[in-house]
Amino acid sequence: MDSKREVLSVNGLRTSFFTDGGIVPAVDGITFGLREGEILGIVGESGCGKSVTSLSIMGLVPNPPGKVTGGEILYGGRDLTKLPERQMRKVRGNDIAMIFQEPMTSLNPLFTIGNQMMEALLIHTKLGKRKARERAVEMLRLVGLPRAEEMMDDYPHQLSGGMRQRVMIAMALVCEPNILIADEPTTALDVTIQAQILKLMKDLNDRLNTAVLLITHDLGVVAETCERVLVMYAGQIVEEGPVEDIFNDPQHPYTEGLLKSVPDMRFKQERLVPIQGNVPRPGSIKHGCRFAARCPYVFDRCTAEDPDLYGTPSGQRARCFLRDGKEAAAHDEALVES
Ligand SMILES: Nc1ncnc2c1ncn2[C@@H]1O[C@H](COP(=O)(O)OP(=O)(O)OP(=O)(O)O)[C@@H](O)[C@H]1O
Ligand SMILES: [Mg+2]
Question: Residue 330: is its pLDDT beyond 70?
């Protein structure tokens, strides 16, 4: 199963926010690998720690109040959590690029779009000025900005939110990074542009073997774009596996709930069933499974012990006692009897 090399390995990562209201363990011990050339999806409801995971990888967790408090992030033989900021800046330019959920935070309001695109190209590629300009304009067109030539002289505030988002995407892609982290890259965009951007990311992935970590609420996007998927809940990974398997046979009740709560793009469905209740505040559940209060299958053990990620015969992994050998057998038996 793990035949492909991991280009990024996240081991036991913990990131917390130290606020007046207490410590918020936003990412609470997650472990996963991003494999060479794959598109890996991360899904989960709002507040489950998707953005904090990607900011941790990029070394951009706002500090204070946030801090990586444990674990490691291995890239190219180095632990990114221990890298000095000066070297981390190089990694961000050359190796790992990110498309942010909040586009305005990463464009400099004082420089033109052209300036910022060119700077990235001149620093990180061997292109001369003229070629770099051509490249920048071409990239802006590719992300669906037809006025690309004129736009080079615009300042960020002169563009609409959707345009700025596309400029951000162009900037992330133009230097052809080894790893692209895309945090809800298309949510704010209309459907045609969305499809265009996803295609662009797929092309980059095909052509240059760029590994992509794609964070999205949209399970349809995951089904179309990703090979594997991680399901996050309350700061933890609760299920992981190949997209096909997870969609056809979810192993965690939360994943099952997510799939039931969206209009299904593949199997016919009578109606939408939202998951009952809300995501718990990080750190508010001290014992047991974090999904127990919302789980239709909850039983005694769920509130008493913390479940591990249990492997399943299909190669998925799920943080649910129902997948723990003995329990799983008993549960399946009960199902057969009923
Ligand atoms: N600067 C901050 N200070 C305090 N808590 C924070 C801060 N940033 C994030 N958090 C907390 O960390 C948790 C995870 O947030 P995160 O932004 O990673 O969620 P998400 O999964 O990306 O959600 P969404 O789908 O809405 O983007 C949340 O409970 C959030 O309140
Ligand atoms: Mg987010």
Answer: no
